[in-house]
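My current task is to audit a protein record that another person submitted. I need someone to confirm that the token line plausibly describes how this chain folds. Take the sequence as given and treat only the tokens as open to question. This is what I was given:
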Amino acid sequence: MNPLHKNILKKLAVISISSTIFLTGTTAYIAPSVEAASSSRDRVISIGNQYLGTPYKFGAQFGVTSRFDCSSFTKWVYSRVGKTLKRASKDQARQGYFVPRSQLVKGDLVFFTTSSRSGISHVGIYAGNSRVLHTYGAGGVKYSSMKSGWWNSHYVTARRVL
């Protein structure tokens, strides 16, 4: 296809989308996707809550729900809402898009370093109110505060996948 035809098709697509938005109204057109994302975020937290107290086991196999490591937990929970995540936390940190810490919303993935190195080695689910739903060490799946202390000082980044 020559560049002139591509340009004409792009303009027709813009006109078509603009007409659809104008005829349906922007609120009716945009609201369903915003509502669906919010619902998915709440559902992720609800699903994660079902596993509170489930033991932590480094290297836990995906799909086994009697024990989790951090990334098998996030991969499992997100799979329940139809979102496929990679297996390792460092790979999950490359999915979705970057979110500044000041703009976190429920359901965002939050990443930490658990060693003296600066690389990502832990992932959890942001649950609102500066809390992370995750699994690590004693107690298994639990909530931890990101406001101060260890998790605050080991925070690396966040990604939005919903």
Summary: The CA atoms of residues 56 and 136 lie 6 Å apart. The domain at 3-160 is CATH 3.90.1720.10 (endopeptidase fold (from Nostoc punctiforme)).
